[in-house]
Amino acid sequence: MPELTVESLATGGEGVGRFNGKTVFVPLTAPGDRVRFEVVQEKKRYLRGRMTERLDDGSGRRRPPCPVFGECGGCDWQHLAYTEQAEWKQRLVQDVLHRIGGVQAASELPILPAVSEWGYRSRVQFKCHATSEGMAIGFFRRGSHFVIDIVSCPIADERINHLLVWLRPILERFPVPETIPQVDVELGADGQARMVVHQLADAQTEAAEYLARYAAENDVALFMQTGRKSTLQHLCGPVGLGIEVDDPPLRLLYDAGGFAQVNAGQNRLLVDEVVRLAALVGTERVIDLYCGMGNLSLPLARRSASLVGIEAYQPAIVAAEQNAKTNRVENCRFLVGDAMSALPRLLDQPCDLLVLDPPRQGAKELNQALAGGAHLPTRLLYVSCDPATLARDVKGLTSTGYHLSALRPIDMFPQTHHVETIALLELE
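RESULT FIELD:
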């Protein structure tokens, strides 16, 4: 069985070493580990391996607390001490920007570590599978659709773990539990819980009445979903769930099917850092692409002359408009539409700050959209959840005349390799 010493970590979270002149990626290893591995994939320039035995431990390794770590596909870095996780996230973001983007920020700011490395998730999607021994509720096994049954999740808010204990017998007593593939559980800032129970579209059951009775008794807002988001059905409890950002606090509501960061505490830090880097003085015209329910829009609108937010998901725009009204932020407007299609028209007038927080695939068409407008934004604040797509897009922006002024990683997802990054770009 081949051996290697893990030298570093890859952006996908795997340990990286060398064997017979090839780079080898081995999941669930730590820098300094000496391991035996078997080859599971062989390419011309690299191998992918599976650790079969750990001979020596790296200095940053620790014992993961979760009994299903390594089997469950949720976390991949629990075996790393938290300081090690934060240091590697900082290093990997900078490396990807240098290697793919070909740029180095004028100011590479230190990562904002998580306030809490455990119990931070306020939203969890539990996968469900009915078996002869009861209901398996948990997460998919790494690389498969087999459901790993869990008792609790150490990165989930403790209130969600309590709800899991409550939920299991209810689903097991359900007449046809095999029709329930997933249950989404999320918490608001005030502790309000909301569940979205997914049911197969062709299931003929009295699920709504059965589940609503238990939910109402336990003060849980309940929705059913039998397909796309358009099939969401409100059964009981408050429609909206709230988060709080900024100071003085803004309370932002969003509906089931809408998006909010899974780490509410780190989201507040992210918003504060966006506001700090924006450095608005009250005279600016701001555009916020992929604005959602106003997570960044309203704090920025408070500090600028005007703001326009764009979002393709129409219920999120309804929420953003209502949030602006409720919080008495009157200098913003929100439009439903595709961000890249709408941007050239919005740039018919000068723009002082363009903010974008795109999905994981990034904003590949951003350069083309900028070229279609009459004015280039003076500054851009790009919030990214994928360093590789951020690096690709920053590389394109530097060819348009922008330079990378500042880079700030934020650890939104402890115990995983995922990292959020804010990039500030300014016209030369």
